[in-house]
Predict the structure.
Amino acid sequence: MDRTLLSKIHNIYTFTGKLIDLTKAMENKNLYAILLGGKIRKNHLMEDHHLVFVVAENEKEARKLAKKKWVVEEVHVDGTQLIKRVDGYEVSLKKSSAEGSDFEINPNYSL
């Protein structure tokens, strides 16, 4: 059987009795960088910040999802950025079979 056809079949699953093509479902999803602010400790005067990435259909949904990724006192969104293109490269999303997120952090960021 043709690999392309197998790939298309793999991308189709049943949800509430309807067949949905996951490739088309991802067309409405966007990558957002969300800057969160919040207090790490209760009664602490200083605020800390955390940058998270989320996949969402719109900014409102992205803000809601981002807040769930960092559990601190008084978490709020300080900024959002829709990411469509970076340094001349288009950003596209492809559904992964793995759940969650996978990031590599450079410990030498200040060098």
About this structure: Confidence is low (pLDDT under 50) at residues 12-17. Strands lie at 12-15, 18-21, 30-39, 48-56, 73-83, 85-86, 89-90. Residues 82 and 109 are 23 Å apart (CA to CA). Residues 3-85 form a domain with the Ubiquitin-like (UB roll) fold (CATH 3.10.20.10).
